[in-house]
Each structure stands twice: as C-alpha cells, then as structure tokens.
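Re: Re: token formats

Sure, here are both.
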Amino acid sequence: MQDTVFFVHMTDTHINIPGKNPLFKIDASQKLRDVFTELEKLERKPDFVVISGDLTQDGNVEDYSYLRLLLEEEMSKLGVPLYLALGNHDSRPYFREGYLEEEPTEESYYYSVMESGLRLIVLNTQVPGLNEGHLDEEQLEWLRETLSTPAPKGSIIVLHHPVVPTPTALMDSHLLCNPQDLADAIAGSDVIGLLSGHIHVNNIGLFEGIPSAAATGVAFGIEPTAAHSMKFIDNSGYNLVLVKDGRMIVHPMAMPGEQRLVFEWKMEMEQAHS
C-alpha cells in the first residue's frame, strides 16, 4: 500500500448534448475535456477522479448517455477509477437510465469505496426540485454504520452541498440545511475531510475541526462576494487532493480563461416571477 493517496476532485460539469441550450453560451463539454488534458500533463497520475454533482445541466437521459461516452473516452486515457455524486441539477432516474444503464428509480444514490486504504464516502444531498441540500435519516444511519469500522487511512466524504459558511448570506442559502445532523454522524469517526461543489467557488474552512473544501465549477464560476446578486463568471477549475499522514491537503487549480462576466442574476428577477 502506497504511503499517500493523490486524487482529483471536480464538480459542476453541467453537461448537455452538443448543440443543446448551451448555458451562458459556454461549451461545457470542451471545458471538461480541457481539464482532462491538464490532468494528463501531471507528473504524478491521480489514483482516481471524483465529480461531486451537477453532472448535467438539464438532467435528461440523452445528456447522461452523452456524458457517459465523454467520460469513458477521457478516463480511458488516465486509466484510473471514476466516482460520481449527484447534485441539484441531476435526476436520479435519468442518471440511472442514461449513465448507469439501469432501471430508472428515485432511489437515493450513495455509496462508499476503498482506494489504497482511503475510504471515499459519496453522499446524496440532492432534494429534487430544490437548490438547498439535505441528508435524510436513512442515509445518516447508513453513514454511522459505515464509519463504525475505521479505514486504514481514514475517510473522506463527498457531497454536493457545502457545509462551511461563505462570504455572503445569499451563498449561505445554498448550503446543506442540516449540517448538525452530519456533524453528529461523523463525530468521533475517522473522517479527515469533506469535499463539495454547488457554489462554483473555492471555499475552504473547518467543519467541526475537519477540513472542508468546495471547488469551483468545471463549467463556470461564481463571484463569491456579491451580496444581492449572483455573478456567473467564465472560468474553470478543479482540486488536487493529497492524503498524507492522516490529513487531507487540497490544492485548488485554476484553468486559463477570460474571467468575464457572462450573466448576473439579481434577486428582484425572482421576485418579479413570483
């Protein structure tokens, strides 16, 4: 067993089939391919890749089928495992049908895997129809049972919705809405870190003394300090994650880009449609 574990954390790829409603006129597929091109240049190959939700923009069967082909092509070049979580833009039944090629169901999608002694726990904080996240009791009970036996190098939890406060109340409204339930479930366990997405900005802090890192989106970013609007920015990035000596170390990586404002959503827009 190697001394360290090194992997890539991506999030919010927002893929649609080519030519279909490109969000902010951004080619999300190309942005994802560009990230994989950078990964192939790394001197150390990652042990695996994890994508923490919002895999597609519209969550249709054809989008997931296309995403599967895209990821199979890119991951074949790396030759390492890939693990996926679902986000608020995703559809459980269509993900199962289009990506997993299984029978479509609304069953929650969560699981754990072991990689070189590190346990990766992927949770489903998605609540269909809502932006905020929530962990149901069935999943929390499964998490407590999973953590009852320590892993050799500890556990890292992947969830779409962040748990660490952000610079503004507007962004804080998009966090996990029951963080205390999660805190209670992992108290005294071997969890060494949490990784998330959703807010499209690097946001790193401590959750009950445990490092927690949200990554910027692959498809686009959001300006984190706007208090009364959401400013969508044409940028892209991912995290390199190192597990060493029982610690999770996160290296945010920025892709080249124009950093231009592509859309601004203002609160009065929602009020006007309510």
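Second one below.
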Amino acid sequence: MRKALALSLLAVFLGGCASEPAPRDISGVWINQAAIDEAANGGNLREALLANGPNLEWKIDTKNAKASYTNGFEWVEGKLLPENNRVWQVDVYGSSATHLSLNGDQLIQAAADSDPQQTFTRSPVHLASDAPLGTNFEHALKSAYLGGQWRVVSGTGQGNTVTFLPDGKITGLPNHNAYALCMAGDCASMSGEYDSLWLQQDEVGAAHLFVRNGSQLEIFQALDSAKPDEMPQFYPGKLEWLLEKQL
C-alpha cells in the first residue's frame, strides 16, 4: 500500500514538472514587421518607421549570452540574462536594462522611459549568419516598399522598366546600378521632411529626395542650402524621374 502511494505521489510530481512550459530558444534575427507593413502602404517611409520604432532589428545569441539591436543608425550590443523561461533582460553598459519576452511567435520589447513597447517577428529573410546587423530588416523593407516593377513615366529612360532589388542593386534606371534608402541618422537630418535615397553608378553616387504616393514615386535632385562648413540641408530641386508601379 505504501509502495503504491509512493508511486502515485511520484507520478503526480513528475506530471507537474512535465506541465511546466519548456524554455524557448529566442536565438536568431527578429525584425520590426509592423514598420515594414505600414511602409508598404506606400506613404512616407520615415514616418512609418518612426511610428513603429525606434528599433528595427534584434539579433540574439543565447548560447553566448549576447543581444544586439539597431535603430537604423546605431548598433548596440548587450549581455543577455534570462529572468525566467519567457523573459530576458539585456544589459547595455551605460544604459538601463531592456526587457524582452515572448508572446506566441512574437518577441516583445517592453516599454521603457525613452522607448514604447515594440513587437518583432522572426526574419523571413535567409541571409548569411554573419550578415551585418540590420541587413535582414533592410532586405524585407526594400522588398515591401520598392518591390515589383516600376515604369519610367518621365525622365531619362522614359518607358524603361525599373526594378529595385532587396540587396541594393537597381536595374532599368539609366546611369545607376545601386541604391540605398535613408532610414535614420544624419541622412534623415539632412533631408528634413522629405525621404531620401542614395543612387549610385559603380563608385560614384549622390543623394536624392523622393516622395512616395501609393503607386507613384517622384525622385528629385537634392539641392543644398547649407554653408560650406555646415551639415548639408537638402531641399528638392528638379524632378528627375516619375516612376509608376506596375500592378
């Protein structure tokens, strides 16, 4: 009888242990999909990023207790410390700790004094493990915001089909084979209320301002109103291209 009771208690104990949720590995790359989804509506790019930011991507390595994030112009690394099986703390030297938790398939960055709560999803982009921090977000953003084919309605190469590739290459836009979107930092400060992008041919390039309105993309020459010893302050000059997205 005693033996049967002992076995019964052991079964209850083991059953209780088995019911505890197993810790989940949060290692990998997590991107701010909400910012990408809002940008994909075809409006102002930086407004969409700011409304859902500021952070754009987390890269987490639980094995080495490291967690890094970028907001588009800063790259910050901290020490990852588990608080329990669903909450982690990221300690960054000189800053208050950031808390991360899991909610289903989403990684939640808790609200703090200077940042709102943010939600991240595992990156659907499959890049090399040593890809620079932020690259996964950029690839996904470029695909959503500028993906597909665009026709040159006016400007050099009128009638051409232009394709913006997620790796930063561009085809169909005369005299340009690479581009980069400005998401934050100095390039954002220099362009004021306008979005900006960098257009380049091999090693030579220049900043341009653009306005995205649904299926239309206007790209302007960037003129500078700053003095030679000041940070550039761009304003739109001549409309160089009007592109229309092909549906």
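The chain has two domains: 23-143, 147-245. Residues 2-19 form the longest helix (18 residues).
- S.
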